[in-house]
Request: fold
Amino acid sequence: MPDLLIRNAGVVVTMDATRRELRDTDILIRDGVIAAIGPRLTTTGDTLDASGCVVTPGLVNTHHHLYQTLTRAVPGGQDALLFGWLKTLYPIWARMGPEEIHVSALAGLGELALSGCSLTSDHLYMYPNGARLDDTIAAAAEIGLRFHPTRGAMSIGQSLGGLPPDELVEREADILTDCIRVIDSFHDPRPGAMVRVGVAPCSPFSVSRELMRDAALLARDKGVMLHTHLAENDEDIAYSLAQFGCRPGQYAEDLGWTGPDVWHAHCVRLDAPEIALFARSGTGVAHCPCSNCRLGSGIAPVRRMRDAGVKVGLGVDGSASSDAGSVIAEARQAMLLQRVAGGADAMSAREALEIATLGGAQVLGRSDTGALVPGLRADIAVWDVSGLESAGAWDPVAALVLCGPRGVRDLVVEGRRIVTGGRLATVDQDRLARHQSRLARALADG
Reply:
């Protein structure tokens, strides 16, 4: 791969230890790594002119359900709370197969890339009609994003008192066997890895205590991370109290689901002792503000979490509940919700941007990305702030969160150009959109 020089950046937002913002600066990329940052660098390789642009680390998405990009704005689920929303969509998802899982992942990953995201996790917890986690991993390779897929699962169907229909659950022995298969096949623990795999039973209301405990033991034996949904709304808390006799944080701790190798999605209803537990144990949180608003789940206590020392990243969640897959939009929503809850000074635009970059990388256990520092991986977003959305902005860095732009001009991942001039460079995005729409119509007609 030839060197790439990003030239004349108006502002480079480093997210380094002192959060420096460098003016009129170049970034030299060699072999997928940031080789140097400074003025008037030279190269015999390729160049990318960033004059007048804001350059940030690639954004990081810590929670997604990529398959849901086929079921946006579904009637019957548009105005429902979490459990009712799930009951509407489960029968539709049960009709998917490998093609739907693969194409919806392509579309969701492409949408993320256009929003400036270079690293994303995914939580796939159902495998209808022969679908496998492999289908999403192949999609990430096509788009070119750094990927942290998690082998999710559901094992308690309606006949046993669970929420999902029986046709969407699996035998727990089969789940653990396939977790081993995908970890052995795809997980790469090395710095700069393009794929790392996690273990992710769906939620306390769709798997048994035994599977939660066994999944934690397996993940630690294999050296991979753990992920699930936790304390998403009041229904979630009520279920935990009724079924387990304790709050979700205690349930998680009892089963080995706290620690620096664990991150939980949502955590809207964590109380003060649970926040202290997460801070003390190094447990991470994927904050999904748009989905929390859409489903009426509430405002997560992000200010209190961060003040306590909890690792917090952003998650777009599935497009059936958040409708869009834009990490920069989540950053704005996170900032606004904390201000609603705590006042106009509760969260700044720069803090929201930090959560969207460095914060997400820390949640996913990636010390090799999330900041623009020599020696880290070259995951870089270039934002053109000369357009109408940000015209008149006095502070171009804050403008990324406060007003726009809403998409990147260029995105580089591991030194490779993924978005160029606001368009996907690795796939035909118009053809992909048509394919996605055909599959969605077929699901709707079915």
